[in-house]
């Protein structure tokens, strides 16, 4: 994947004003149980109100229920979909009034 202002890579964390490569191993994220609370805490710390989750080209990356619960408790609106669809959703929600963050997994 290519994200403006960030070196090309496979997985990304995006937030208002920037982003970086997403090292899924930092919080033990694997396809199952999926995106972990630690993965979304960085985004919450950046004040997001909406998050877009790219679950891979074949939707193999899951989202741990504890991560979803953390987002819901914070009042964050969640969009989770196959990565190409999630990439399409991102600009639309980023144009809205709430700060947007994203986690994009580009493979499987």
TrEMBL record:
Gene Ontology cellular-component terms for this entry are: cytoplasm
**Per the record, a Pfam family?**
DUF498
| InterPro entries, alphabetized | MTH938-like_sf, NDUFAF3/AAMDC
| Membrane-spanning ranges | none
* Protein name, UniProt field: Mth938-like domain-containing protein
